[in-house]
Amino acid sequence: MEIKFNSKIKLIVIGGGPAGLAAALEANRNGVAAEDILIIERDRELGGILNQCIHAGFGLHIFGEELTGPEYAERFIKQVEESKIPYITDSMVLSINESRSVSFVSPQTGFMRVNAGAIVIACGCRERPKGALNIAGSRPSGIFTAGSAQRFVNIENCKIGNKIVILGSGDIGLIMARRLTLEGAEVLRVCELMPYSGGLARNIAQCLDDFGIPLYLSHTVTHIHGKDRVEGVTISQVEKETLRPIKGTEEYVECDTLLLSVGLIPENELTRDAGIKMDRITGGAVVNQHCETSVEGIFACGNALQVHDLVDFVTMEAYSAGKAAADYINNGTRKSSSVCIIEAGNGVRYVVPQNMNIESESVSLYMRVSNIYRNVKLIVKIDGEVIRKISKNIVTPGEMEKIELKAGLINPDCKIIQISVEE
Length: 423
Hints:
Elements: E1 8-14, H1 18-29, E2 37-40, E3 56-58, E4 67-68, H2 69-82, E5 87-88, E6 92-96, E7 101-106, E8 110-121, E9 125-127, E10 136-137, E11 143-145, H3 146-154, E12 163-167, H4 171-182, E13 186-192, H5 201-208, E14 215-217, E15 219-225, E16 232-237, E17 251-254, E18 257-260, E19 264-266, H6 269-273, E20 298-300, H7 311-331, E21 339-344, E22 348-352, E23 355-357, E24 363-369, E25 373-382, E26 385-395, E27 401-405, E28 416-422
Parallel strand pairs: 1-2, 1-8, 2-5, 8-20, 10-15, 11-18, 12-13, 12-18, 13-14, 21-28
Antiparallel strand pairs: 3-4, 6-7, 7-8, 9-19, 15-16, 16-17, 21-23, 22-24, 24-27, 25-26, 25-28
Helix pairs in contact: 1-2, 1-7, 3-4, 4-5
């Protein structure tokens, strides 16, 4: 699409994945003209990570049907094109600042600096690489992050190996265990450092159990063997409390490929450079219930804000950010007489949003627990008073929980909302 830059674009969306597309569409539906919006995407096409996620399981909440990743992305791309919202691909955003000035470079435009009325950060996340793990051994070929392996297999049509060990039980690693098995490779085992899986229960069942792939909890790779190509790995059991390898439990596993599925990191270099307050647990920005960051007029959503399990939740969050950005553009900053802090209590690792402006509207809270808990209650307290109890048969760190707080439950004078686990 040919881009004609205005002297001042009202809304710039950084990222053309599911979060960016949904935010742009929602802003357009809430009064921002299509020609006043610009989506900037780093890849060669819109869709983000969904383009390589050819498995089913997307769209159950948003569309009420099961779609593959490309099918889900296509629906939003089609809406963007029908709405005539401008977008530019193969473009890298270099910086943003508190004045909402965006600098980017593209083969189509060269270097550009554009002022925006509002910015939505929807950059997604990246994988934690081998260098962050400090695994002993050489540096042979045959070591891949699960996402890069997914791209090689699903997009580039490349075979990455024959005998494979996967370290980490994140969702991408689990899905690749199944995908590589279907491609004829032998997935020997999946090793997980923690005593619980980092992925969805349905992925454990459908990707490992259904294909007879063993999952070794409280195990990790302690040594990589091989010079030019991976020849094998040493796997050790770890202590559950300290996560340190237990001497004498070492086992050598012959393999030619090691896949790493050891966590995702929200992409937030631009966010930090803009002086936005960050959350050390989520790795994303600190936001209120409108996904607005500590810098006025800059919003964050999707995996750049927090790592999600389901793209449907990404879309819902992006809708909130897009609507709030449109409200900011049309009406200016939101004024509130009170700000309430939202904090994680016992058994809860984090809650997003981290604060809220007290207004007469419902609030969606996203959270993850810090361990596996069975037959517990999620307790919501406002200024120490219990206002809601939600019974759960099981909650796990690998599955995000969502709590809806109706407007009538929130005291206009409240100072602290706390979410905790009660056994």
